[in-house]
Design a protein that fits this description.
Elements lengths: L22 H14 L3 H11 L10 H15 L10 H9 L3
Length: about 100
């Protein structure tokens, strides 16, 4: 009598991705996987597919946010020119903010 073994999976995982984590990260991932009732591989797979990742600031993003905050402060009347240099004041006015 021939044994067939394990039935084939519906979706075969074909690619292995290896990465390093610290011991603290490992234990955090393990705790979250245990709490979710899945193994670490399934947890990381779901996190990679469904979780949102906060992107890093790109070059110039911080300056853009600062400029927008400055112009919003000026527009709302909470403006104190002592907080900003005169070039920023002129630049904001030229851009129409």
């Amino acid at each position: 009598m021939k044994r067939e073994g394990r039935p084939p999976k519906a979706i075969k995982q074909e690619k292995n991705i290896g990465f390093f984590v610290t011991w603290n990260q490992y234990f955090i991932i393990k705790q979250k996987a245990d709490a979710a009732g899945v193994n670490m591989s399934d947890y990381m797979r779901q996190a990679a597919v469904y979780a949102q990742v906060k992107s890093r600031w790109r070059v110039g993003d911080q300056e853009l946010v600062r400029e927008l905050e400055y112009c919003q402060i000026k527009e709302e009347g909470f403006f104190n020119e002592d907080w900003f240099n005169q070039n920023e004041v002129l630049e904001c006015e030229l851009k129409g903010y």
